[in-house]
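Example record for the data management plan.
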Amino acid sequence: MKLTLNWLLLLLCVLSHHHHVDAGSIVKFLPGFEGPLPFELETGYIGIGEEEEVQLFYYFVKSENNPKEDPLLVWLSGGPGSSSLTALVSEIGPLVLKSEFYNGTVPSLFSSTYSWTKVANIIFLDQPVGAGFSYSKTPLGKTGDTNEIQMIHEFLQKWLHKHPQYISNPFYATGDSYAGMIVPAVVDAISKGNYICCNPPINLQGYVLGNPITYEEMELNYRIPFAHGMSLISDELYESLKRYCKGNYFYVDPRNTKCLEIVEEYNKFTENINIHQILLPNCDDTNTNNISPDCFYYKYYLFERWANTESVREALQINKGSKANWVRYNHTIPYDKNIKSSIPYHMNNSINGYRSLIFSGDHDMVLPSFATRAWIKSLNYSITHDWKPWMINDQIAGYTTTYANKMTFATIKGCGHTPEYLPEEASIMFKRWISGQLL
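Corresponding structural encoding:
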């Protein structure tokens, strides 16, 4: 009761003192999209730190349903170093980049019918600093998991200061891939921060993660049983791997030469598999300048052509001189992966009563669903609804289990490492969960 009264007092204080603060720039038109945008897009920077040397860039899309009451999400892309523009224009956002041969003009955009913004307000955040259009005014030093968690928390507090109308909206932290290391800790930081004077409390309700990295040393080992289960390696090779490596395939003792030898054999069988979606051709997605138009990832090349067009930068209100070249995935950020496992954060968040949706594309070999199911099982929570199919139009779209700790696990049948592979199924799954339905 005391926390509720404090929350209301702070809300009134924020509403009365911050309604005149600049709240970013409204973008009504984007190069490549015909006509005005059919949704409300705001872009801007939030300065982090006392001197605000770090400038985190965001895209905010209002819910197309009921923005005053619909949930508010922050979306963090993986990497670390991927721009959230990828999620906005490829995975869960209201825009899709048309995959067509680049002819030197601005690549085309069209509306997506599968956007999560149909039911939620979403802040797409470029983080860590150096990703996307986020930048530092001073030479960029080394950042890392714990530093980024503090900065994201500060970002959210400052963003809500500038957008007090969203303070009462249910808030969810969301993301995929490497965000699995960050989101659970951000939820924990918000939960603790809500008890500290005198920032506006965040109406935290839970979090959503897709194919999340959680405990990498353990999870990488699950690529072996996944490869066997998908008939990518023989029974004999699988049995030899188990016998000589004893479940540890990627951090092998150098003295275990037999294991190293068999792992090398495994690598030969799988090196040409597209580990992000094993059914797709293994075309190069790392060097976007040489990517083939036939490749699924050709759109990444188009992203970079689009985002580096001067008219696009002007429309997005990018600070001049802040970024010489936008890249989809910045591999050069000095980054310290100093959280070994996010499992303890999941446990704390469950104890504190927060909802969670953990989903997994079942054709992802980067973070196999086998691995995700293993760490969820390690939490030892009782099952409230056991493994069963979830359906779309009387067809199996995946399988789901719900737990007593308000956690829902779901696979998306045929999906890869991110929602971009099956955006319709991912959208339907999210809409059901966020509204409180069983999948």
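Summary line stored alongside the record: The chain has a mean pLDDT of 92.
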